[in-house]
Specification:
α3 links the parallel β3 and β4. Strands 1-10-9-8-7-6-5-2-3-4 form a ten-stranded mixed β-sheet. The N and C termini lie far apart (42 Å). Helices cover 35% and strands 11% of the residues. The N terminus and C terminus are likely disordered. The chain is α/β, with parallel strands linked by helices.
Length: 330
């Protein structure tokens, strides 16, 4: 869809999320900050089959500038094959500063590197229980289906589906035929804003629809777009990196999110912009020129490693001394 899509069926036009918008949510820590005031993210991600997803998500969260990341291993996960490490062991080897096990947190990141069809009964129940609390949740990959049971009383949540996952959620939500713009195949095409908005309302959650143009729609009607992203992002694992960035931002701003879940929309758009800028920096493109795509191939870990420089770049392009709605955790 274009950067400024016209209003559809009562849906406001999409706001193109820019550098100044994102920089307002990326302030550096103050001299009185500590690891708890900078946000604590609990990451329930990765699996025996995809331990790398846990490493990518946790690494990206740390590189976003969060105060602490807790890693919570999936319950009753299968035993790794092919000599692979468990997700927890992989995370420890890559990010030894990570804290392991349940504990207090400001936000949850759930589902990256998992498949809802292979999650244990205990893990499925644990994820469902998160929706009954007040702690904000970022839902990715195998945890997306847990949103189908949400109500307006559920914890604040943001979903990060791609077009294929949107199609599945739409069908499982029993919303009828999904309208598509320029359909090109079973897993592609563009979903109109009205459909994304309808699904966001049905799930009582903000939706970040990944694509060349990332679209963010909140249940309250906030609509934002980011991109076009560099095509070098179309590679395995970059979605795990995006989820980690978003989880860290939500944890950092958990107070405002709990007070008003609509805050998840600008945080999601900011995460998408940081993700793209990091990819452009990693590939050698000009991060200030979104039309340039002449860089070199990159991997997901390259993107995660470039996140600090991306945040610095965005902050330098649009300096900001305060963070909107920033509050400290007691």
């Amino acid at each position: 869809m274009p950067a400024e899509e016209p209003a559809q069926a009562g849906i406001p036009a999409s706001k193109l999320w820019g550098v100044a918008d994102a920089a307002a949510w990326l302030r550096p820590p103050a001299d009185n900050d500590h690891k708890y005031t900078r946000g604590v993210l609990a990451a329930r991600i990765g699996s025996a089959r995809y331990p790398g997803a846990a490493v990518l998500g946790v690494s990206a969260a740390w590189r976003t500038g969060i105060g602490m990341v807790r890693y919570v291993a999936p319950l009753d996960d299968a035993q790794p094959e092919l000599g692979l490490p468990t997700p927890a062991a992989a995370v420890l080897a890559a990010r030894p500063e990570t804290v392991f096990g349940d504990g207090s947190c400001d936000a949850w990141l759930v589902g990256s590197g998992t498949d809802s069809g292979s999650c244990s009964v205990a893990e499925t129940a644990a994820i469902a229980h998160l929706h009954t609390g007040e702690t904000p949740i970022v839902l990715d990959a195998g945890a997306l289906d847990s949103a189908l049971a949400r109500t307006e009383a559920s914890a604040p949540a943001v979903l990060t589906p791609h077009i294929g996952e949107i199609r599945r959620l739409w069908a499982e939500a029993d919303l009828g035929p999904l309208p598509l713009l320029r359909p090109q195949g079973a897993g592609s095409g563009t979903v109109p804003l009205s459909a994304v908005a309808r699904l966001a309302t049905r799930l009582s959650a903000t939706i970040l629809l990944k694509g060349s143009i990332t679209t963010v729609v909140s249940p309250g009607g906030r609509v934002m777009s980011v991109g076009p992203a560099t095509p070098w992002l179309a590679t395995a694992g970059t979605g795990d990196v995006l989820a980690g960035i978003l989880g860290a931002l939500v944890a950092r701003h958990a107070g405002p999110v709990r007070a008003n879940p609509e805050v998840l929309a600008p945080l999601a758009a900011t995460a998408a912009l940081v993700h793209d800028v990091a990819a452009r920096l990693a590939s050698g493109d000009d991060a200030t020129d979104p039309t340039q795509c002449a860089g070199t191939p990159i991997t997901a870990l390259d993107v995660a490693c470039a996140v600090p420089k991306a945040i610095s770049t965005l902050s330098r392009l649009a300096p900001c001394t305060t963070s909107p709605g920033s509050t400290k955790r007691s």
